[in-house]
């Protein structure tokens, strides 16, 4: 994932490899890089313009990846040598049951007999809260992996992959919930 069009999206934008990047910092770094690639700077030099266009595409791909927290997490995990989604599909204990119950309740109403939209559980809010908790967990795992001892790193990155897998489930659920 981290190699898509950019190799190291953090390096392309000159940013530290960290999960806790602010969108403003990513956007500012991209603007600075793009200003250096402006077509007018290569006017009259077709080869230089072609290189600038290719580099502009790399900068835009890196920006798109790093402003999206889930894509940023996957890129960072790959760069740190953690498992990819296709290599490790583990989920937290009990997570699948939690999701199945939440989906069923969201679709058919909760145990109190409420129907979706009848003032029962706000499943969009539930999914948003669950997503925020996973984002916080992933951030903590990355911080620990990057500052902790090398021997613990692989286990922390595996836990980050597990949390990212759960995050992907929550994202799918958020996408499928009816909008109010």
Brief characterization of the structure:
66% of the residues lie in helices and 0% in strands.
Uncertain segments: 1-6, 114-118
Percent of residues in helices: 55-70%
- Mean pLDDT rating: 87
Biggest sheet details: none
Distance between the termini: 33 Å
Strand element count = 0
Bulk shape:
globular
The number of helices is 7
- Strand percentage, roughly? under 5%
SSE class: mainly alpha
What kind of oligomer do you see?
single chain
Topology (SSEs and partners):
Layout: H1 9-13, H2 23-36, H3 46-67, H4 69-79, H5 95-108, H6 123-147, H7 150-176
Written description of the protein model:
66% of the residues lie in helices and 0% in strands. The protein is mostly helical. The protein folds into two domains: 9-68, DnaJ domain (Helix Hairpins), CATH 1.10.287.110; 95-176, no CATH class. The longest helix is centred in the C-terminal third of the chain and has 27 residues, at 150-176. It starts with 8 loop residues before the first helix and ends with a helix.
Q: Could you list some keywords that capture this structure?
A:
180 residues, mainly alpha, Helix Hairpins, 2 domains, 7 helices, 66% helix, globular, disordered N terminus
